[in-house]
Amino acid sequence: MSAEQTGHDFRTTAARDLQHVHRKPGAVKPDAILVADDVTRHFGGIAAVDVAHLEVQRNAITALIGPNGAGKTTLFNLMTGFDRPSSGRWTFEGAPLAGVSAARVARSGMVRTFQLTKALNRMTVIENMRLGATHQPGENLFAALVPSLWRPREKEITAQAEELLARFKLETKRDDFAGSLSGGQRKLLEMARALMSRPTMIMLDEPMAGVNPALTQSLLGHIQALRDEGTTVLFVEHDMHMVRHISDWVVVMAEGRIVAEGPPESVMKDPAVIDAYLGAHHDTDLGDDSLLEDDVPPRTREGQS
Amino acid sequence: MDWTRILTNVAGEIIAPTTAAYALAAIGLNIHFGLTGLLNMGQAGFMLLGAYGFAIATIAGWPIWAAALVAIAAAAVFALVLGIPTLKLRGDYLAIVTIAAAEIVRLIGRSTALTSLTGASSGLRGDSYKATFQALSPLPDGTTDIGPFSYSNNFSNSWWIRIVAWAVVALACLFVFLLIRSPWGRVLKGIREDEDAVRSLGKSVYAYKMQSLVLGGVIGALAGIIYVLPRAVQPDSMGRPMTFFVWTILLLGGAATVFGPVLGSIVFWAGLMLIKSVMRDGIPDTVMSTGQIEQLGWVIVGVTLMLLVIFRPQGVLGDKKELAINVR
């Protein structure tokens, strides 16, 4: 599969490839980019993560959902080298990643964002973006002293950064300190910064948390555009509307384990998911847009009783 | 009150080698703290190591460049030893380890077991290691008067030391100026803001922090050499207070700026001289003895600095906007 294919192709390929995948935890994917086996992480006596097998399909948007404390973020931290597992192994594009440092995971093409945004507040937006770039010789101490060695690359980086900023509607904030941005803008900045390295896979930890509804729509568009350009996306999210709307595949975690997998429409009807996740609202459609209105859940409860 | 004499004394502090040495030490600390956010509470340890390295090597008969290299190497090894166990931990640990390590250097230096090498608590006499430095001077022997200042050309507290000391400070400023605007400096600033974010972008945070610690420490060692050239190596005069003066100078001038440490050092030492001279002239002996005036001078400097940090936390040259943003 080449990157020259049009976006539409990636979308249909993802849907077609995933069509015949078994809808069960640990399902084998036709073209897995990330494969994890027996990954566990214990905090004291509690198994925060206990994943027997997980495969993430290439060039698709995979959502990782589950109730609070299900181990989603912990799994993210393990995969990206920010935490060490108690046991387990995993590969990214065939290369083993267990025990590899976070920086090297990122350099291998798997870049993440954080649930609590990590904008570098006392640096300008454009400096934040430039920091995300790779292959800048000036990041070497000695080369840094000779501007002519790194100026040309800096120009390329800046052009790329400005293009991304324009795409994320942040170009007017170019020279502002990142700390002066709103919470939602910081989320956008963090995502744009992660894209500076042109990653093969991007892992977004709750990209919608704290983003106002007006921005949500454009953020969804950005994430789909990433997939359409050939980037693999794995994201953690609580917003079911978003999950239903953009994901090609959904993985459900509960109590550290993967309890269900499937396309968004069917996975929400899986009894294991309803048990683990839906709780009180087990007969409401979690992807139902009307749930987004604050006053709906109580009324639903009245209707049930 | 003899204002001419007071102002001459104050102006003398502005160009004094000690002021240059402190400026240089603060430039090193600026790389640690201003750029990388490392809390090095043992800059005096780096300075003392540099001073010992230079003096001991010179006394052993080494040429001046080799002696300077010994000082640099000592500081680099010291930084590595401190950094390897602590740079993977949170910042506070580095602070604890560096303050303790600087004390260890001082206590080892003044221990009687090493008298033959370090001179123990009485230290090393200036005359024993100054010769190679003075021999390098192109100036003729004698004394030169420039304006109100009259110093020997080559000996002890000389014009030659002033020229070399401030030239080194200027070079260090140029060095920091180049680094602060380079992609390397950008990575360090990123680490200062949030090291996990920088890690997630594929940079080896640990390696960068180590480079910063070594570089700042080496500059500290050079400052140590300049500090002891017009005097003697006295371990007890290079203890914790020295570290805190360097910190004060950095915060006074403005962290993360190029000229902040230089300005901070000048303001600090000239201000101290001004306060002390005025009080010595203005307060009669019957009210306060000279020794008490000396101490009151430090008290006033301390209070002034507290006020400055409260009302102008970014220092004299710092960027108000940069500091106004809450660090979350």
CATH topology heading of chain B? ABC transporter involved in vitamin B12 uptake, BtuC
Order of helices and strands of chain B: HHHHHHHEEHHHHHHHH
Shape of chain A: globular
Mean pLDDT of chain A: 86
Count of the domains of chain A: 2
Characteristic key phrases:
heterodimer; A: 305 residues; alpha/beta; Rossmann fold; six-stranded mixed sheet; 12 helices; 38% helix; globular; disordered C terminus; B: 328 residues; mainly alpha; ABC transporter involved in vitamin B12 uptake, BtuC; two-stranded antiparallel sheet; 2 strands
Describe it for me?
The complex is a heterodimer of chains A (305) and B (328). Chain A is of the alpha/beta class. Chain A has 2 domains: 7-118 and 198-304, Rossmann fold (3-Layer(aba) Sandwich); 120-180, no CATH class. Chain A is 38% helix and 20% strand. Chain A is built from 12 helices and 10 strands. A 6-stranded mixed β-sheet of chain A has the order 6-7-8-3-9-10, sandwiched between helices. In chain A, strands 2-1-4-5 form a 4-stranded antiparallel β-sheet. In chain A, helix 4 (125-131) packs parallel to helix 7 (183-195). Chain A starts with 6 loop residues before the first helix and ends with a helix. In chain A, 47% of the residues are buried. With 328 residues, chain B is mainly alpha-helical. Chain B has one domain (3-324): ABC transporter involved in vitamin B12 uptake, BtuC, CATH 1.10.3470. In chain B, 69% of the residues lie in helices and 2% in strands. Chain B has helices at residues 3-14, 17-36, 43-59, 64-86, 91-109, 115-118, 131-135, 159-180, 183-193, 195-200, 205-228, 240-253, 260-282, 290-311, 320-324, and strands spanning 143-146, 149-152. Chain B has a two-stranded antiparallel sheet. In chain B, strand 1 (143-146) and strand 2 form a beta hairpin. Chain B is globular and about 60 Å long. Chain A binds chain B through residues 80, 82, 101-104, 106-107, 111-114, 118-123, 127, 130-132, 134, 136, 138-141, 143-145, 147, 150, 154, 177, 179-180, 190, 193-194, 196-197, and chain B through 175, 178-179, 182-187, 189-190, 192-194, 196-205, 211, 215, 321-323, 325-328.
